[in-house]
């Protein structure tokens, strides 16, 4: 399989803040009069697109004959979003097609998913299985991360994954019950990934600490979702982050901590960064916009995600991290379930449907609550929603950038 197989079939997406009615010529156009915002700065420029690629950037460009032009006066012109943390397919309500539609409606042009091997499958086979579905269903571009669920056999496969399939990332779950029993194999997997130039994404919650919290709450009769935030305490995230940092330090392999939710876990990552350990940090819209008070209300089921919602002080620390560059990416961890499934009253702290549906709203919410309020600049907005994830997952400067030669994935 060629490396390009991890992208969807549609290399070019002009997101639907304007509409394209003539597909044959829609990939040639001039966008003029707007303010281009990149992670580096903002400037007035027109953009000429040919065959879906940006071929010219400059002032007072004119549209060649027959090329459609779009007046972007008064508008910001940004790279299409890149969301490296999306879950699609399986029992979830979104597949690659509807996930693409939600993303495109919200200014995201590259989504993602995780390829977990089924019983007896190799990582490469899992990637091929998902690549076939992407070919068939996806409208947006798609990054596939290989999911590690058997490090004992998969550590070997990681060494050849990038060359074989083009996958530049794997994901491990410290929260899995089998994590501790296989810790040596996970270390070897992470080491192999680092040597192969593959980024290891880590779900940083400690299984034993979470399991004990659930046991204690259960013994006290506190099994309803009202107690969900206490069933996955900050301590579990802190311990896992410390260990993940230790693993990164021991192996010399970079890590990418997904969905960091608490001030204390962020501090562990920041201390590691300050020591020169390569720890990339992702946070998630729910932690930036919501706090655990949501679990006081009757619709608490809607907010069940792992890790849970935290305190206002945690939220404040995350916004600071976004502003000061110690948080690199806002990824949704999008998991769509139908409302009635999320509100199913039989759910408990031990048995529930985790995940939130937020692909379509992540960028508008971050812009509204971050840029408009002055908490982050428009350039940081572009960095954490497009440029940084494009860089980390091997797509830059084709994605995440507005420059000559980049794909014309543009949001007005
Ligand atoms: Zn996730």
Describe this structure in words.
The protein has 412 residues and is of the alpha/beta class. The chain has 2 domains: 3-77 and 406-411, Urease, subunit C, domain 1 (Roll); 81-389, TIM Barrel, CATH 3.20.20.140. The protein is built from 13 helices and 16 strands. It has helices at residues 96-105, 123-137, 151-165, 183-196, 207-219, 228-231, 234-251, 263-274, 285-289, 312-324, 339-342, 362-371, 378-392, and strands at 29-32, 35-37, 42-44, 46-50, 53-58, 68-71, 76-79, 81-82, 108-115, 141-147, 169-173, 199-203, 255-257, 279-283, 329-330, 410-411. The strands form 3 sheets. The chain has an 8-stranded parallel sheet. The protein has a 4-stranded mixed sheet with strand order 5-4-1-6, with no helix packed on it. The longest helix has 18 residues, at 234-251. The structure holds zinc ion.
User: Could you please say which CATH topology of the largest domain applies here?
Assistant: TIM Barrel
What is the share of helical residues?
A: 25-40%
Instruction: Calculate Rg over CA atoms.
Output: 21 Å
Order of helices and strands: EEEEEEEEHEHEHEHEHHHEHEHHEHHHE
> CATH-wise, what's the superfamily of the largest domain?
Metal-dependent hydrolases
The N- to C-terminal Cα distance equals 34 Å
H/I helix tally: 13
Number of domains: 2
Q: What CATH architecture label of the largest domain applies?
A: Alpha-Beta Barrel
Q: For this entry, what is the oligomeric state of its chains?
A: single chain
User: Main sheet?
Assistant: 8 strands, parallel
Name the structural class. alpha/beta
Say which molecules are bound, naming each kind only once.
zinc ion
Task: Return the average pLDDT rounded to an integer.
Answer: 93
- The beta-strand count equals 16
